[in-house]
Amino acid sequence: MSFTVEPGQTVALVGHTGSGKTSIVNLMSKFYRHNGEAGSAGEHGRILIDGYDIDRITQADLHRQMGIVLQENLLFSGTVMDNIRFARPEADDADVIDVCERLGCLDVMQQLQNGLGTEVGERGEALSMGQRQLVCFARAMLARPRLLICDEATSSVDTVTEARVQEALGHLLEGRTSFVIAHRLSTIRKADLILVVKAGRIVEQGTHAQLLALGGTYSDLHAEFVRVSQGEQSIL
To answer: Which of 22, 44, 132, 191 is an S-S bond match for 124, by CB 3.0 to 4.6 Å?
Structure first.
């Protein structure tokens, strides 16, 4: 597979479970090592970031410029403020409040029992799934990453909470080179580039409108998403 992402673009990776979406971002994050040799452009290929071969970039340097939000994120026993500030310990309270305002979720945090001073408990047990994700979005934004990866960041959120999480995610993606993996296609409709992955290969790529007009794999995935969404709405 081969693709190019321009600075500041949002790229969506879609496909069924096991298609290879997470493997792609794991390679970009150096959690996996690809099977080519540094500097070689042969059949094994290369991964380049700002023109630099990823094999020549240390993992520490790469991760200092990355933010990752997963489906289930780690929250530790402490306050909401402490959990957000974990991304940048030197940040003060005003920095955390500013990030929550820019994400559009400060009101959600303030409605907690003790606002940003609310104790979240082990693994965030005192918060709903949507509230946990907003805390993790705020943590990621506070880190000021140049490269952002969101892996199924909204898949466990109910449809009522999803609107707030989607709004916050939109603010988080602004101005960053971002990779978004999602089964809920509403997450990626506004992506600059959508890569449709099947069995480890990119079978389609383009914008949401272009891929719908193509009438192929993405169109089928979108129809499936619509059916599921209508089912959730009828249950509600």
So the answer is: 132
